[in-house]
Amino acid sequence: MSPIGSNTADRASRDRPATLKLTLFGHMRADDAAGCSVLPRGRKTRAVLAILALSPRGMAPRSHIASLLWSVRENEQARASLRQAVHELQLALSAAGPRLLRADRNNIALAHAGISSDIETLTRTVLPGADVLNLFAHPLLEDLRGLDIAFDNWIEHQSRRLKQQGITIGEALLAATAGTAAATKVAALMLRIDETNTGAWQAAIGAQVALGEHAGALSAYERYRAALARTGERTPAARIEEMVAAIPRAGAPQPGATGFEARASPPPGRAYGADGVVRLGVFPLRPIEPHIGDELAVALVEEITTALAQFRWITCFANILPWSADGSSRPRDADSASRASQPPPQFDFLLDGTLQRSGGRIRVIVQLSDVRAGRTVVWARRFDRDVTDIFALQDEIAAETAAQIDTALLLWEGERVRHRQRGDPDAVDLMLGAIPSIYRLESTLFRKAGELLETALALDSGNAAVHAWLAYWHLFLVGQGWASDSEAATARAAQLAERAVGLDARDARAVTLAGHVRGFLNKRPGEAASLHDRAIALNPNLALAWCFSGLTQSYLGEHAEAIRRIDRAQRLAPHDPHGFFFDTARIMPHLLRREFGTAAAIGRRAIALNPGFSSAYKGMLSALGHLGRHEEAAALCLRLLRLEPQFSVRDAIARSPLIREEELNLYVDGLRRAGLAEE
Description:
By secondary structure, the chain is an alpha/beta fold. It starts with 7 loop residues before the first helix and ends in a 6-residue tail after the last helix. The longest helix has 30 residues, at 390-419. Among the domains are: 8-156, Arc Repressor Mutant, subunit A, CATH 1.10.10.10; 278-419, Rossmann fold (3-Layer(aba) Sandwich); 578-679, Tetratricopeptide repeat domain (Serine Threonine Protein Phosphatase 5, Tetratricopeptide repeat), CATH 1.25.40.10. Helix 16 (443-459) runs antiparallel to helix 17 and helix 17 runs parallel beside helix 19. The protein has helices at residues 8-12, 43-54, 62-69, 75-93, 149-177, 181-193, 198-210, 214-230, 238-245, 255-258, 261-264, 294-308, 334-341, 390-419, 427-440, 443-459, 464-479, 486-503, 508-521, 525-538, 543-555, 559-572, 579-592, 596-609, 614-627, 630-643, 649-655, 661-673; strands at 20-23, 29-32, 59-61, 101-103, 107-110, 115-117, 278-282, 286-287, 314-318, 349-358, 361-370, 376-386.
């Protein structure tokens, strides 16, 4: 780190003992030579110190720091706040030594001499020991998250950069320790950084094979597959598949036959069970330590089953037999023994997992597998929670599990239908085959999805789910500006949504879609709000209902409540394929609260997730107009017009569901300032 105006004396002083030691992984620390904390009290002041410590040569422009920590303020206000933070930081660091912080009109810098940090071990020219990878046991700047969206994004960028350095070190260490017990430790540490790293898994599985621990190797392979499923990967590395295929095992399916290749070539057979819905068996989670007991495992399976049962298209079967130590189920009483003797239902999917406890924390790992595809893992999730309120913990895990499984199953079944060679698809097949293309929102595939849904409707005019998904399709058709006749498409969406509710008034998805049609397309948010509340009462774990209800609250001017509800949707389904839609929904309430910097930052994230979703551009464009960021606004306007060539201020007014005149004027004024054409 080079200070501003460094001189020969400064360079010579670099060999002196450090007077300030920074810890940036986990909770931030700043200690003097005696080990006493000199960390500033203000969190944003600490953030200034962190930015400097992670910047090249320890120096950063004032404008850059201000844009990260005060992105929603006007420039002069941001610079004034930064001046105050710099003053506080200078006072705090003076206890560790003189001239550790230097500032001029444009830049702020840390003196290189006398400062060290935990990240320096990642940049040493000599290969460090494996223990350096323990740095990644805690997130970077864990206690400074949430100060500003721009700063959060900066932390994520720095974290990815440092993790890549850690992986590079790990790969070198693996090469240096190949064939030794040390390689296993290195592999485990690397997997903390990147849970799908091929080299680390190859070393971990290979070590078990070398020791003759074939069961351990197969168990590690299953964990590898689960890690791939969590991150959306499809196919294990060929060299790992070859290694595992050579492991002797009696009667066990080979990875190539029942593993991830099933995703690319789904097995034949009907997408749904005989009763017309997906049949899902929910098994108790296996306690890893005996002292956890069966009670929590049974309670969790009951909560998860109850949550999943709210989704009308999923039929759940709960097996509440506890697990024995070897993983097999055993009857607890005579009634359980009687049930155990009965033939099990024919499931399409199984949900199971494990429980582990350490002190006051618990780890729950849940995974969903397709029985018809050789127990291929479809979805997996790890929950790490404090055990303070056991009932709240059960509710939270059950809600998030159910919300995420719903989407995972819809996409899995949709892809399965698309790859199945069948000449006479029924309405359910056609509907499922359309869903992945609705989520992708690519124009050509999207229109094909509409054709599939229309055919499904012709085959089964009494199917509530088909009506609901076709209404959803029309919502995007209008919202994207793809409808040749917007009025006709709006009327069709309303007709389909109302019919879906009429066919099945307890289908929460149909009810919330009907509400969104009324609120967004028909501009009747009061009616929409009651429908969304009804949908949430029917299924409180449907993320889409929380998102739509949040949008409606914003149309009504209740922006704080809007943000709360949309945040609930994102907590339920943080990796939903329509995550860009959830982010887009948050733009408008922040915009209408005049939080223009926040609205713009959210818009950037939504567009990054799906550059083809035009609605994200509109709210962000208005925010940029109010911020006076004309160059960025001009570029964004061009991108929007490539998606919707005819979009103008007049179209924005005509389409907007905002009912308060002053809020509509605020939105439109931002678009004008951003340079959008009037007509």
